[in-house]
């Protein structure tokens, strides 16, 4: 459990004051492994899915690979990348949703429960986290070098609308049929 992002902030409260240069042992490795995961998933989608089905995720993965890659290569913004990894907590329920859809279990209590948990974790771990990250970036703009600020702002400008659109699609599909 030591490598999970929420635990890192509990066990290392100094990160809440410095997301640029401070990170606990293992955090850099966690972000590096995450880059590897996103690279592997990117290549897998390129090889096994049609582009029109996966372009949004490929774009998402490209942004994450660039942003996390900068953190890994420069040993800076690792704490900020850990905050971004909070988003992935919701991915568990997005993936369970996909599995239930593929298993044709849409009209089950399990699917309904997962839909509710998915939506709740989506709001908390995606929308609220991205809003917090955007706010942090804006409030710290004078302390962040121009290039890093540009990459971070571009990342937030891409991720936030993508996640709002996906949220709307989930709402429409699972609750407004």
TrEMBL record:
Q: Which GO terms describe its biological process?
A: membrane assembly; phospholipid homeostasis; plasma membrane organization; regulation of membrane lipid distribution
Residues passing through the membrane, by range = 55-73, 79-96, 116-134, 146-171
Q: Name one GO cellular component term.
A: plasma membrane
| Pfam families to which the protein is assigned, alphabetical | TRAM_LAG1_CLN8 (PF03798)
The organism sits in which domain of life? Eukaryota
Indicate where this protein resides in the cell: Membrane
**The entry's keywords:** Membrane, Transmembrane, Transmembrane helix
User: What is the protein's given name?
Assistant: TLCD2 protein
User: What organism is recorded for this protein?
Assistant: Cisticola juncidis
